[in-house]
Design a protein that fits this description.
The protein is α/β, with parallel strands linked by helices. It contains 10 helices and 16 strands. The protein has helices spanning about 20-30, 50-55, 95-110, 160-165, 235-245, 290-310, 320-345, 345-355, 360-370, 380-395; strands spanning about 10-15, 35-40, 50, 65-70, 70-75, 80-85, 90-95, 115-125, 130-135, 145-155, 175-185, 195-200, 210-215, 220-225, 250-260, 275. A hairpin with a 5-residue loop joins strand 5 (about 70-75) and strand 6.
Length: about 400
């Protein structure tokens, strides 16, 4: 079906990342008339980690998993290194260039119409519908076109144009800025690089308030940093990280940068016909910066809310997406936000944080929570032990061990 200004679609999804593509797939599979408006060619800077729950919940085929991570190495300011092996499992790694496109194609195969263009603005029509204005990518004259719909789902990333134009508070999103360089992976195990291990650097010169990463993607590796500190050079920090990780001479495949939201928006809908999801809604995990799973889970819930709205015509249905998401993940986000506030504030605390990661209870509960995307409640004694160890490290009673 060819889109036109006269035709009224059920929903226009603005943005074809993991959240938007997931929502478009679910809505079109339910029989709705869906347009997926996406600007092709843009790849978000991302470590690319996907936990087993995501692979299972969203039926991700194995050929998209370019590496299987069996452990993480935490690197302290003193260069102390703590290994955290995954017992009996793995974390999948994806290349966003191919992963995102596969998700968009899956949405198209389920019936969503893909349009390659740049969102410009949204307007509310007198008949209660909404109109999207966009610029087609292949229009050499830059002439805009329009689409009409019963509802719009904004999945256009951090600092979303849809959110800024329609959602109260949508223009006030605190962000961490992320930058990474995709480089060729070393062919040997030289310089300490390992193809099944993610390295995470908690060092002030690499990032004063976040962390740096070296995440293998099979033939390629993502090397990057994040920071919310104004004036901090992410490119210079990435250059330092590459040198420290022994990847300074590795061939650079591409470079990417983008803002990453720090916390969910207080409101995701306009009270009429617009809802936002994914980074546009601010659903990136504090402390870790993990976004793919939460973006897709959010897109799935947003699709349910949009479906309910389309069936009932009640704008209140759009509010349920945020309620469901925060019920499922709000507590995890709260704990991670506190962790980031305390442990990332200085190199002294980062040193203690990495030392604490040696603890078997910390490792076990951390991986269980990450792999399953929920806090582990089955072992209260372990949580109590970790609480007191946390406090001891925080007030300086526990001296970090050296490797």
């Amino acid at each position: 079906m060819q889109a036109s200004a006269a035709h009224v679609h059920d929903v226009i999804v603005v943005g074809g990342g993991p959240s938007g593509a997931t929502a478009a797939h679910k809505l079109s599979s339910a029989g709705h008339d869906v347009v997926l408006l996406d600007r092709r060619g843009r790849i978000k800077p991302c470590g690319g980690a996907v936990p087993p729950r995501l692979i299972k919940d969203f039926a991700i085929p194995d050929h998209l998993i370019v590496a299987k991570i069996r452990s993480a190495q935490m690197v302290a300011p003193s260069d102390t290194r703590v290994d955290m092996p995954i017992d009996g499992g793995y974390v999948g790694m994806v290349d966003r260039e191919h992963f995102d496109e596969w998700l968009r194609e899956r949405a198209a195969e389920s019936g969503a119409e893909r349009i390659d263009g740049t969102f410009e603005r949204i307007s509310y029509d007198a008949d209660g519908l909404v109109t999207i204005t966009y610029t087609p990518r292949d229009d050499e004259h830059g002439a805009t076109q329009t689409l009409r719909a019963r509802t719009v789902l904004g999945a256009d990333g951090a600092r979303s144009s849809v959110a800024r134009q329609t959602i109260p508070g949508g223009d006030q999103v605190p962000c961490v800025f992320a930058y990474h360089e995709i480089v060729r992976s070393p062919e040997t195990a030289e310089v300490g690089f390992h193809p099944t291990r993610c390295d995470v650097y908690y060092q002030g010169p690499i990032s004063p308030d976040f962390y740096g990463w070296v995440f293998p993607h099979g033939p390629n590796t993502s090397v990057g940093v994040g920071s919310a500190k104004k004036g901090f050079s992410l490119r210079d920090a990435t250059k330092k990280l590459r040198a420290q990780a022994g990847l300074a001479e590795s061939q650079t495949v591409r470079r990417e940068g983008a803002p990453i939201p720090l916390k969910p928006l207080k409101r995701w809908d306009d009270g009429k016909r617009v809802l936002v999801t994914g980074d546009a809604a601010g659903v990136v995990a504090p402390a870790s910066g993990e976004g793919i799973y939460y973006a897709m889970a959010c897109g799935d819930m947003a699709a349910d809310s949009v479906h309910e709205f389309l069936v009932t015509g009640k704008a209140k249905a759009l509010t349920t997406a945020r309620k469901r998401f925060m019920k499922a993940h709000g507590r995890v986000f709260f704990v991670l936000r506190i962790m980031q506030y305390f442990w990332y504030s200085s190199d002294k605390r980062r040193e203690s944080f990495v030392a604490m990661c040696r603890d078997p209870d910390v490792q076990r509960l951390t991986w269980q929570a990450y792999m399953n995307k929920e806090l582990v409640r089955a072992d209260p004694l372990a949580h109590i032990k970790i609480f007191f160890k946390d406090m001891a490290h925080l007030v300086g009673f526990a001296a970090p061990k050296r490797s």
